Structure formats: C-alpha cells, structure tokens
Amino acid sequence: MRQLDPVVLNEIPLIRKIICDETWYEGERRGCWVSSDDPVVKENVCLVICRVGEELRRTLTARIAADSQPAGYSAMKANGD
Hints:
Blueprint: H1 6-30, H2 39-67, H3 73-79
C-alpha cells in the first residue's frame, strides 16, 4: 500500500473542519439543516480550500520539517557546528 504524503495526512483534519464549518454556515443562511453533500456546501468548501490551500501546505510542510530535525539541530546550525 502506498503511503500518503505527510502533508496530506495533516491537511485531512483541517479539511474536515472546513466542511463542517461550511455546512453549518449554509444551514444558518438557509435557516434549516443542510447536508455536507449539498452542492452549495461543496462549492464553498472548494473555494475556501483554493483560497487557503497554498498557505496551508506551506505551513504544514515547514512544521513537519521542523518536527523531523534532531533535538538541538537548529542551535548547532546557528553556531556553525
């Protein structure tokens, strides 16, 4: 089985949150319950992901890179060791 990109794994909970938020917003706008499969919700989710996706990927990539560095690595690098 192919392993998922670690950035994608970190994006999944955030995308779920966007779906949940957009479903709630659309329900509030209409004044009734709305499914997350609703076409308007799907469109809004896509718009949000397109708007914030690049920054989200950049942030998660930097966080994963920082987490994978050995302890004290940044201090050694700053000292020129």
